[in-house]
Amino acid sequence: MASRILLLAFLALVCSHAIASDPSPVQDFCVADKTSHVFVNGLVCKNPKDVKADDFFLSGLDKPGDTANKLGSNVTLVNVEKIAGLNTLGISLARIDFAPYGLNPPHIHPRATEILTVLEGSLYVGFVTSNPDNRLFTRVINKGDVFVFPQGLIHFQFNYGTKNAVAIAALSSQNPGVITVANAVFGSKPPISRDVLAKAFQADEKTVDWLQAQFWMDNNN
After folding, report:
1. pLDDT-wise least confident of 12-26, 76-90, 149-163
2. Measured between alpha carbons, how far is 77 from 175 in angstroms, rounded to an integer?
3. What is the pLDDT at residue 218?
């Protein structure tokens, strides 16, 4: 009996790893059919006979993103919504532009590991491990350097210099998702109870009200 329980536990562990990332393709490609109204884990495949080279193509990533905002950064994501041919391939890309002192704020990719390289400038980057340790790993990276952010961990990038910076990030999912911590906590719809937030952050209710007002305003613009 004990051996059966051990076997079942082992199989459950193996299966959990098998489904923990994007499903592997079982054909050469599965170009997303964006006209389909069928809901599946991913996107429905277009008929291969209707697939064209443009389904695997996108231009314009050479153009800087608009960093004229409060954070001084802009993320141009190239995922399956932009390139239908990425469907089932388990990868996506992002260009990140930073104004001087621009920040890509603490956020999470729930479905992807990220690997980032700097094209121009220098960045102060880091991530925080899960509870209970909450260890912070940081480093300054320069042009040509590469840094990895493990899946699901809070991480950030900050341009501490006086010149613009540009980075390219690859992510291990066709649709990595992003949860910006401050936006999610203080800008949720409907808002999280201020009593909950005040106790969680050990802050007074006026501070919580002010933060919620800022992020509600930003998220509804």
Report:
1. 12-26
2. 10
3. 58
Q: What is the pTM of this model?
A: 0.84
Cβ neighbours, 10 Å, residue 149: 24
Of the pLDDT bands very low, low, confident and very high (cuts 50, 70, 90), residue 24 is: confident
* DSSP 8-class letter at 37: -
Q: Give 109-131 as a DSSP string.
A: -TT--EEEEEEESEEEEEEEPPT
Question: What residues does 94 pair with on adjacent strands?
Answer: 77, 169
What is the spatial distance between Cα 186 and Cα 221, in angstroms, rounded to a whole number? 15
* Burial of 167 (C-beta count, 10 Å sphere; 0-12/13-18/19+): buried
| C-alpha neighbours within 13 Å on the C-beta side of residue 142 | 0
Residue 13, pLDDT score? 41
Any idea which residue has 């603490």 for tokens?
Answer: 106
d(CA 95, CA 87): 20
Q: Which H or E run contains 15? A: helix 2-18
